[in-house]
């Protein structure tokens, strides 16, 4: 069916009628090319132009005040249990279900509803609506530039105290929650009325904390239990170790005794792999590593003095890494002297618990983490650079460039072998990707105007929690190219690390040969020196004998003048 609509309009409203006629061609304008400008011409492909369509105004203002959101909940309940049935008692529930299933009314309802649902159940079973059609397909993100965006910022509920977010820990079961330890670590800068609480945040409700962790001293370290997400382990500023169970309230379930705890702040803690999941480890600058069982925090299970075998010096620990892939009894400690210590709790001889010492930094090591894909490599962060080591070499195999500012910490990406993150004191988070570039970071994110203080990467590798000294924790989401493993990346990074290890071994061997050659030359010089000394002594003995002979002859003859002239003559001859 054709639809026709007729428009009606007066002839006078069309305007004047044009009257065209033929004419000869004429030049309206002639632009002669300028040959002098031909050298400055270049083709731009693609050509990007920017057009501003916003009207020009002399003054404009936008209201950017934050919107305060308040979380509200709603309870929705369906059905229920009879009053005489306790749903938490399995025996009551089983007995009630068996009784209900034997009733005629229940059987009639099941038969009636079963006929209506049978066709729907068959349809659901015919097609898997949850099937992933493109699972296992590796997407190439090499052409995409690395990028990031800030999802939210978690602010300290007590901004007047200017506490820093000194430690962050992700919830082990997904990226739903984040535990943050707040403290003031500057010397003698803690005010008297400073709040001591730390908080657990729910990322779906970033306006207010989800749970308050109450302590007797400010927290320096805080970590979720990998086996039970309701339990957290914390190290306090006064040297005590405590643990919290969110199901049992805000106060600590148990705290270590002061006389059996550290004498300095507990800078780092770690959960150990055990059958019970209750063993943990803490380190401090007092020079001790203490092993605990949270079921009995009265005294530590074992004390380890961080004393190296070579120099016999005691090292204060500033950071700790425990990774079961390196060994269930092995852990690595970063010290305030810039050295890393490889320790083995299971050593037969107590003197062998502290093993290799890795000297490399000119300032304390604030970050130390083992590679998540290749367990024999680990990374240290200190002074102005980050270094990558292998267990059996005492020199780093890879060292990043020196920054103009200090580095505070660093973490590996758990999903990409070649990506790691470093935090700086100027508030910038650097993302390194060794798969594409080894000399410079591929992305630098300006997170805060103040110094960064803590860093933690979520297990899926997409979210990064970055704490700063002003008390803010920024939740940053990185692009797919920085979170998803690339084709042949694991093999390429392994070859890169092996190649650098081989190069460092060759340099170490050349250095040993040079030192051995220098020792041989020094020994040769020492062997030649006695011959020269014997020759000089022989000359002195000869002169002494001649002197005494001349003296005796002069005494016998009584001619002093001849004696002096003979001595002078002998001197000139010599």
TrEMBL record:
Q: Which GO terms describe its biological process?
A: cilium movement; outer dynein arm assembly
* Acetylation in keyword set: no
Entry keyword set: Cell projection, Cilium, Cytoplasm, Cytoskeleton, Dynein, Flagellum, Microtubule, Motor protein, Repeat, WD repeat
**GO (cellular component) term, any one:** microtubule
Keyword Repeat: yes or no? Answer: yes
Species assigned in the record: Chloropicon primus
Q: State its location(s).
A: Cytoplasm, Cytoskeleton, Cilium axoneme
User: Which family, according to UniProt?
Assistant: Belongs to the dynein intermediate chain family.
Region annotation (Disordered) maps to 58-86, 514-538, 551-574
Q: Name the domain of life this protein comes from.
A: Eukaryota
Q: What is this protein called?
A: Flagellar outer dynein arm intermediate chain 2
């Amino acid at each position: 069916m054709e639809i026709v609509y007729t428009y009606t309009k007066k002839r006078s409203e069309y305007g004047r009628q044009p009257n065209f006629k033929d004419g000869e061609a004429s030049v309206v304008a002639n632009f002669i090319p300028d040959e002098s400008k031909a050298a400055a011409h270049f083709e731009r492909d693609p050509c990007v132009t920017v057009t501003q369509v916003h009207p020009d105004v002399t003054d404009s203002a936008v209201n950017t005040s934050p919107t305060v959101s308040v979380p509200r909940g709603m309870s929705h309940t369906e059905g229920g249990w009879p009053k005489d049935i306790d749903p938490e008692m399995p025996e009551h529930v089983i007995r009630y279900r068996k009784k209900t299933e034997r009733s005629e009314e229940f059987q009639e309802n099941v038969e009636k509803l079963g006929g209506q649902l049978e066709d729907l159940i068959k349809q659901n079973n015919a097609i898997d609506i949850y099937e992933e059609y493109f699972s296992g397909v590796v997407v190439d993100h090499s052409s995409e530039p690395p990028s990031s965006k800030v999802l939210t910022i978690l602010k300290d509920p007590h901004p007047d105290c200017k506490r820093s977010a000194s430690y962050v820990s992700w919830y082990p079961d997904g990226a739903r929650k984040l535990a943050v330890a707040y403290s003031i670590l500057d010397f003698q800068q803690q005010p008297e009325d400073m709040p001591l609480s730390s908080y657990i945040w729910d990322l779906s409700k970033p306006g207010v904390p989800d749970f308050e962790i109450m302590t007797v001293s400010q927290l320096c370290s805080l970590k979720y239990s990998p086996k039970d997400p309701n339990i957290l382990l914390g190290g306090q500023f006064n040297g005590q170790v405590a643990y919290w169970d969110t199901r049992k309230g805000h106060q600590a379930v148990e705290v270590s005794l002061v006389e059996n705890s550290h004498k300095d702040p507990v800078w780092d803690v770690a959960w150990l792999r055990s059958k019970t999941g209750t063993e943990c480890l803490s380190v401090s600058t007092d020079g001790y590593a203490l092993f605990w069982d949270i079921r009995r925090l009265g005294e530590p299970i074992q004390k380890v003095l961080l004393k190296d075998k070579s120099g016999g010096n005691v090292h204060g620990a500033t950071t700790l890494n425990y990774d079961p892939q390196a060994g269930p009894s092995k852990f690595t400690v970063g010290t305030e002297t810039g050295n890393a210590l490889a320790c083995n709790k299971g050593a037969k001889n107590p003197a062998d618990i502290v093993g290799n010492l890795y000297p490399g930094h000119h300032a304390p090591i604030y970050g130390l983490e083992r590679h998540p894909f290749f367990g024999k490599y680990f990374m240290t962060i200190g002074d102005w650079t980050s270094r990558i080591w292998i267990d059996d070499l005492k020199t780093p195999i890879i060292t990043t460039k020196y920054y103009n500012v200090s580095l505070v910490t660093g973490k590996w990406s758990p999903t990409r072998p070649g990506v790691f993150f470093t935090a700086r004191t100027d508030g910038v988070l650097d993302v390194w990707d060794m798969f594409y570039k080894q000399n410079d970071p591929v992305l630098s994110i300006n997170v805060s105007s103040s110094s960064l203080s803590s860093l933690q990467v979520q297990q899926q590798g997409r979210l990064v929690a970055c704490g700063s000294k002003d008390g803010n924790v920024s939740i940053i989401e990185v692009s797919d190219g920085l979170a998803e493993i690339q084709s042949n990346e694991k093999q390429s990074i392994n070859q890169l690390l092996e190649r650098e290890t081989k190069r460092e071994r060759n340099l170490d061997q050349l250095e040993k040969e040079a030192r051995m050659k220098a020792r041989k030359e020094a020994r040769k010089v020492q062997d030649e020196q006695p011959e020269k000394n014997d020759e000089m002594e022989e000359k002195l003995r000869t002169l002494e004998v001649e002197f005494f002979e001349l003296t005796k002859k002069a005494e016998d003859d009584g001619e002093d003048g001849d004696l002096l002239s003979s001595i002078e003559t002998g001197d000139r001859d010599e």
